[in-house]
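Ex. 9. Protein: YycH family regulatory protein.
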Amino acid sequence: MKERIKSLTLALLVVCSLVQSYFLIYQLPGSDPVVKTESDYVRTENMGTTVEADKLLFPAQIAIHLGKERHTVFYPDSTFYNLIYSRLKGRQFDGFQRNSIKNIDWADIRSNHIGIELQFGGGVPVALLQKVMQIKPDPLFEGENVNRLLIYNAGPQDQVRVFFFSSQGDVVYEATKADLTVQDVQQQVDFGKDWVPYTLENGYYVPEQSIDIVETGLNIDVYTIEQMQRSLFFDPSITRYIREKDGSEIYTDSKRSLQVKQDRNWINYTDPAAPSAGENSPSKNVLSAVDFVNQHGGWNGKYRLSRSDGMDEDRHRVAFQQYFGTGQFGAFPVIDLSTFHYGMITLEMRQGTITGYERSLIYGSGGTWKKEVVSLPGGKELREQIKRLKAESGIANLYPAYLPTQVRGGILLKPMWIAELENGATRVLN
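Predicted structure tokens for YycH family regulatory protein:
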């Protein structure tokens, strides 16, 4: 009898020991285990916020076509921009038909018809655009990236026509069943009647008057290298440190590497051995990129999906551009410069898995030290500046933006006109 009790007691002690070991290793049910695989990352505290993908999907600008070669432009977060975009997000688009872009005179439509044009810049996958707009599933259309949406009243037959432009530049998709009336379009166009007049010139818009933007000085802080290491490496304690001849620093665990340019507070993280997910869907690539940023640095401010394109058959690039704005003036993109990287988050991936990640370590810490309304020139003065660029290349786009400069007080965001050239270059107009 005593031997049996001893055996039972011993067995109970062994079980208790196993249970205790389990909790020591895995903590409590529902919490993160201490034992992790190399594909896991540690979320760093006190870094940026997380966002849902739909918050990053909005037009770079909305052009209003008033007919008789009259136009105006609304920029993100301005009152009429928000009103028009929120209304269109509630409308339904269905019955897609594919057409060649060459079959219609688009310059004539923009100049002589009443309409609204949402410009998305580098292109948005339709599967993602469905998250913010009521676009019915359509196998003909779902695999596309679109860079603009044109809605206009088609003359006296009381008809609204809706076209989604492929970012490839060769085809458009007409939504033949759109939940819009001529009166709907007219009401939204009327918002632009008393706004700054713009002229359409070879695909871009030139204001005939100066426009006001707030020059702003931001208070800033900087993520530490230790924070980024803890966020991006499985075990930061085993990383090696290498100093390059150009002054940049590299931290590596033999699989991943984190390059830091100290003079610019900029990081370039690469993980070439990351296991691929086996699928190269543009929409899933963007969602993967958003999730990655959410976990590794987060977002400090307002960002827009500005680019989503294939680099080759297996690789894809996704870029998010920071926007900044105050009140009634709207929000404008912050330009990333070769001499001062700030305002852009770029990711590269292979078949859905992140292999590259670039971003600034600088972020706005809250509050400003300067706010001053400045006027960007329009009309003749702006055209004179544009004329100087035409010898270099044709102009593809023209828009106001913030030029960032790091100064003693923090970051100075100075409003400037930006010209994107047809040869791919970007120029700042003084």
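Check your answer against this statement. Confidence is low (pLDDT under 50) at residues 21-44.
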